[in-house]
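Notebook B, p. 112. Complex prediction, attempt 2.
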Amino acid sequence: MTIPILLAATERSFWEWVVFLVQHNGMDFVKGAGITLLMAAVGTLIGCIIGFLVGIVQTIPIEQHDNLVKKTVLKIVRALMTAYIEIFRGTPMIVQAMVIYYGSLYVFGIDMTPMTAGFVIVSINTGAYMAESVRGGIDSIDIGQTEAAKAIGMTHFQTMLSVILPQALRNILPQIGNNLIINIKDTAVLNVIGLNELFFATKSLVGAYYQPFPGYIIACVVYFIMTFTCSRILRWYERKIDGPDSYTLAGTDHKGAPVKKRPAGMTMQLMNGTYHKQRSAMR
Amino acid sequence: MSSDNNSPVIEVRHLIKNFGKVEVLKDIDFKTYPGDVICVIGSSGSGKSTLLRCINMLEVPTGGQILFNGSNIMDKHTKVTEYRSKVGMVFQQFNLFNNMTVLQNCLTGQMKVLKRTKEQAEAKAMKYLAQVGMDPYINAKPHQISGGQKQRVAIARALAMEPDVLLFDEPTSALDPEMVGEVLEVMRELVRGGLTMIIVTHEMAFARDVSTRVVFMDKGVIAEEDTPEVIFNNPQNPRTKEFLARFMQDKD
């Protein structure tokens, strides 16, 4: 970062400082924000993958007729996963960051960059939360969906992949959004391992100019822009995968008047138009 | 009546099912021949649905045998998924896949389980959707259509697999009276088409009209099994008489 020599520093007003910081050190904020976003996005993505894997294993049914090996392996794996979830949900991320960053060198001799350590910490932390969300998401799908899939001959794997997980994913999208937003903010704690994200960048500037208030106000605004944009994008995506509220009847020209429900009985009538139904009324 | 020179499609021998210490099915024996339409009637809790779910292995039987075309499906070497693809099931709660459109509901099993190509699967799906009168609704999602329509799609989904036997678990019990008619009409058409069916139902008039045989279940056993004429006009078992008398009263 470039810090010009300041002469009449103390004579600037608050707003002048804000303008000054944006003009002279705007790129430092942008770079910091970039690292924050990258950290949050990658961490959430990998965290979701971990969460799905753990959540899926946690919900594999153990049945009476399964053999002993399968039962034992599943039980051990589940115990390990439960331990993982409890430990990473039960300790602060700032402490985990310290333990993993310094511990990896101390115990395993692995010298990670703050960036690598950051990805690892955010991912496994998010994974622990997501695992529980995914488990809840899978459990919330009506058992009838599973039974219908089994009844047409699908395996457990096919059932999960094409019927249960798509519905579970839709149900936990708000949770994923939550985690992304939390991660955008909480990656600030990674400044303790010297990762040059938005908070660390701001702290450095503030230290150089002795202007904490204008500096942190800018950081606040940048954080808010990032979280707000992400939450809007996620909302848009949720609506997109829900699909349209109405559907078109096959073989029509889409121009006719709305059609009433087809009367009972098997005589097929020619129908034109779009069949509208308010989703709110159906749920 | 079913032809005697054929061997049974499904044969249940000494079937037992316990939930914990509760005996839900006690030594059930019955046979289904090709072309049979068997209606299973009886009061709630008599084990009708459990029997049907055991036949499709959605419940694992505690004891006994279930033979499909002569081979025991409870044998360890039987591929349950392959067996299930030949024995369709229609549920009380429809259970359409909520993440799919009407058309996709009828495609997924064909493509994933039977490995049909998309073109083949679509042709079959459209054929059976047309048969149940739901072909205009292929783009709709399950939450956008009525209960009766959902059940008709569920029937088309099962038919698209072209099963040897189709099981119905109280297919009209979750529908209002107006919609019951449209679903029963579809089922009557399947009977006319000669499909082998086992139907658990409370629709006595329907059972009387379409069955080749009626099975009356009571407290986990088959109390009486006979032609609909005998069951509805001249039942032998006192429990059957009692049950049907109550039903006739309700109708009046």
